[in-house]
Write a structure and sequence with these properties.
- The protein contains 10 helices and 9 strands.
- With 300 residues, the protein is α/β, with parallel strands linked by helices.
- It has 2 domains: 65 residues, DnaJ domain (Helix Hairpins, Orthogonal Bundle); 209 residues, no CATH class.
- The longest helix is centred in the middle third of the chain and has 20 residues.
- It is globular, with a radius of gyration of 20 Å.
Length: 300
């Protein structure tokens, strides 16, 4: 919840300085609980975030562990491999492309342009926290894509996944295309750095700003659909677990496609069971769709 380049620290969530004393910290926590509690008009996702912040720094022992391990843990994740790490004996998902790789390359190029020099550790939290919003947005998007790719890596036989799919002119890409026994889906991996809400088939909230991720996702799915001559069965917005209350939130039917938002930890279950209302791709059609996608899709 606090390991995103865009997210607030546990102290920021509680509205206190890192050197605050224990009594002030406890009062701030109780105040934030009242402010965010759903029963008093607060936001449920923000309420969960406040509780998690307290778990991280609410005791002297937890606070010490948080301050010692916070930077090192972030650096390990932010600077890690861009491809999925395979483990265990479960059959691997057939996968093409490298999730997040284009955005990482773009991030490093813009870091050099912004600083005018090579940065020794462009993934260190100390550097990232001072970077521009555009830079942090790129890195957050890359990390979100990588996390989703790892989640889908062991779906097993019958699933085929493409990452960083070219979906139009310029820099437009579709984060993931998933062909499964339950349907053909377009996915976008989002991380707004904090809790989000939903209104009129779109994602809302202070962190979401003016972006329209559902609209962008559907537009890029249409581009892939035209290029490969295939029909998608549904659209999925993948969000960090701590940013949404429900594992699955239906956003409605848009352009005849069911659209849902899911917690990343629930994505495997959703893909295996199928998106509610999605058109199933089976039999000979499954092989035909896979062939068309392999011939038409280009990845970054």
């Amino acid at each position: 919840m606090f390991d995103s380049p865009l997210s607030a620290s546990a102290y920021e969530v509680l509205g206190v300085a890192p050197d605050v004393d224990e009594d002030t910290l406890r009062r701030a926590y109780r105040l934030r609980l009242r402010e965010t509690h759903p029963d008093t008009g607060g936001d449920a996702a923000a309420f969960i975030q406040v509780q998690h912040a307290w778990e991280l720094i609410g005791t002297a022992e937890a606070r010490l562990a948080y301050e010692r391990g916070h930077d090192d843990g972030e650096r390990l994740q932010w600077g890690g491999r861009t491809d999925a790490t395979r483990s265990g004996t479960r059959p691997r998902t057939a996968s093409y492309g490298r999730a997040g790789s284009w955005r990482r390359e773009r991030y490093l190029a813009l870091v050099r342009e912004w600083t005018g020099q090579e940065v020794a550790d462009p993934y260190s939290p100390a550097f990232v926290r001072t970077a521009t919003w555009e830079l942090r947005r790129l890195l957050a998007d890359a990390l979100a894509e990588e996390d989703t790719a790892r989640t889908m890596d062991d779906l097993g036989i019958g699933f085929t996944v493409w990452h960083d799919v070219v979906a139009g002119p310029g820099d437009e890409t579709l984060d993931h295309v998933v062909l499964s026994p339950t349907g053909l889906y377009g996915l976008v991996s989002e991380d707004f750095g904090g809790p989000v809400g939903f209104r009129r088939e779109e994602i809302t909230g202070p962190e979401a700003g003016d972006r329209m991720p559902v609209g962008e996702l559907l537009a890029r799915m249409r581009a892939v659909s035209r290029a490969a001559r295939v029909r998608f069965g549904g659209a999925i917005v993948v969000l960090p677990d701590g940013d949404v209350v429900q594992p699955l939130t239906p956003l409605g039917i848009v352009g005849k496609l069911p659209v849902i938002a899911v917690r990343r930890s629930a994505l495997r279950t959703v893909l295996r069971a199928g998106v509610p209302g999605a058109r199933i791709v089976g039999g000979n059609e499954l092989f035909d769709v896979r062939t068309r996608l392999k011939q038409a899709i280009r990845t970054r």
